[in-house]
Amino acid sequence: MTRLTAAWRRLRLGTQLALALGALALVVFGLVGVVTTSLLHQYLDNRLGEQLSTTLGQFKSTNYINLQPGKFGHGSASDHDPPIGVMVEFSPGNNVKLTDSTVHPPVDGQLVVALAARALVSGPVHPEQDIVAGGIRYRFMAATVTNSPVLKKVAVVGLSESDTEATIRRMIMVNLVTFGIALVVLVGVGQQVLRRGLRPLADMSSTAHTVASTDLTANSVDLSVRAKGEGGGIEVEELRSAFNVMIDHIDHSLAARSAAEQRLRQFVADASHELRTPLTSIRGYADLFAYAAANEPAERERHLARMREEAGRMSLLLDDLLLLARLDAAEAPLRPEPVDLVEIAVAAADGFQAGHPDHPFTLEVEPSALPLVGDPMRLRQVLDNLLTNAAVHTDAGTPVWLRLRSEPGWAVAEVADGGPGISPENQARVFDRFYRVDDSRTRRSGGTGLGLSVVHSLVTAHGGAVTLQSRPGATVFTVRLPLSAGQV
Ligand code: ADP
Fold first, then answer.
1. Are 390 and 475 spatial neighbours (Cβ–Cβ below 8 Å)?
2. I want to staple 163 with a disulfide (CB 3.0 to 4.6 A). Which of 73, 243, 289, 467 is the partner?
3. Which ligand 1 atom is nearest residue 451's CA?
4. What is the pLDDT of residues 52-73, one digit of tens each?
5. Whole-model pTM?
6. The dihedral of CA 222, 223, 226, 227: what is its sign?
């Protein structure tokens, strides 16, 4: 049984459905066959009964049975089975005389007499069972002709049943053959039709196989396969489009994952490179310091100062890297509290003016307060980074502005300068980590290339956004931060 179940499961769905259809058809055909055959049997039986009565009536009155072909049969070869007609006379003294009116196969006389005797008592009768004569089954009927004390005469008539039987047999044969052919055609054609109907599913299955056999852990994954074809009905269409959308999702997330991995690799490589530069300098200055300690003591302080400078640069770089890594990991290194952006901006402006006296500076504050929830130290870092850039990447004397205003729901801070600006192709990349527009120039200015990435990550972590518009003479970084609830 289990082997049968296992074999059934191994069949294709189309074959399974076709076989199930065949089994169903077999049951239906069987029922139809049994019902039609038994109806026909009943009908032929009734007809034979009617003929028997007619023949008996004729025989009683004429003592003669018409033997015309077809009269007693059903137009078949067995029409030739002769009918049986016997007159049974009972005379006093228990004398019984049988008179055969027809030529017929030998029939058991005792049975005929017994039947006739019963007819005398209870009117026209049939025997309980058919009587076999000459290998042919006969249906008998007996009826009294004369019933006087001197002469009792009974007519007994028998008609062959072989016509009925032959017709039924033929009917069964015809049924078996036609139903058999119909069954084979049904299963065969059904299998083809079902197979065609199920082809879209087979397509999907082979696509799924392709996806399953693709190494999704490889560096570059090609997931361009999709379930093709059309038709199959609404359900199959829906399944196919859902299936393809699912592969799209897998494809996109794989692409996103490999892009993220690529970015991480690049970031680690850049970070190592950036850390190596100050380290190399420190080692160089340390050698110089050791040499100077022995030969030129006056130079020592200078080398030591340079070493401190480089170490400071390194520590700034490490701070930025750590901050970015934490923001990336959504570890929330922020300590949010209710703050006023105006206060933070005024402090940043003071710091800028003190640190960069060679840049004319204007602070424009529209609202008296811009309350929001944020980490004051990090928000100050955002403004400091933007203001420092405005000074560091422009020539001395270039004007710098810090403007504060509010938009519905947002606090807006703009850091603008009248410097050379950033070209459109670089505008898209300045927020990338370690990206510098002009490497040599920025190296001179000591930038790490992380300033704007830190700004972007911090602003995003505060639920805000930073944008850049720049053309020669007007570079504007705009920071939007959500105002505290209830503030407009
Ligand atoms: P850096 O440490 O080099 O300043 P940032 O991420 O802060 O790194 O800036 C990236 C690059 O964008 C800088 O190297 C510089 O070329 C350019 N940049 C940033 N701000 C300005 C500005 N106000 N004017 C011109 N160029 C700028």
1. yes
2. 73
3. 7
4. 888 888 888 887 776 554 444 4
5. 0.56
6. positive
